[in-house]
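Kindly inspect what follows.
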Amino acid sequence: MKAENKFIGLGVFGAIAASMCCITPLLALLAGTSGVASSFSFLEPYRYVLAGATIIVLGLAWYQKLRPVKQEDCDCEAQKSSFFQTKTFLFAVTAFAAVMLAFPSFSHIFYPKPKQAMQTAVAGINTTKTVEFGISGMTCSGCEAHVEQEVFALNGIVKAKASYDNSNAVVAFDSTKTSIAAIEKAILKTGYKVTDQKER
């Protein structure tokens, strides 16, 4: 039973750690403290390793739970299982782990939808610029929403679209209200790295 409990504990830890890079920004947004949003971004490169380890560890826990026990090894009448040693508890832990592992794919729904600003013109001169930022480290739609949320917090943002598939963010902004440097700083605040930038 001790081995099974260790597997369960490691499975929960692995599932949470695998999704921490997407959970922390959301918690930071809800708490209004975006400064801690990038605290666990260092785990992002290991997400798939942690997810794989979680699946293996929970598989071992299920094997321990379902394998036949020899009668001479077990004094079944003397033992009474606690709730934490039941299949119901293991099923609940497995379901929790599955939700945590899938969290990056649906975390974007928890971010408020940013409003697109109206394009502005000053004295007949178009002051809107569009810049594409190369970004490394995004792995899910939650990462995209996190970047967009930080960029839209700036004044003068007309449009912002981040893509983890393309490893970039395309931002249109009013150059009289904000700058490329300010936008880059907002992206860096998320914990992802800006690899390059080019005006469109």
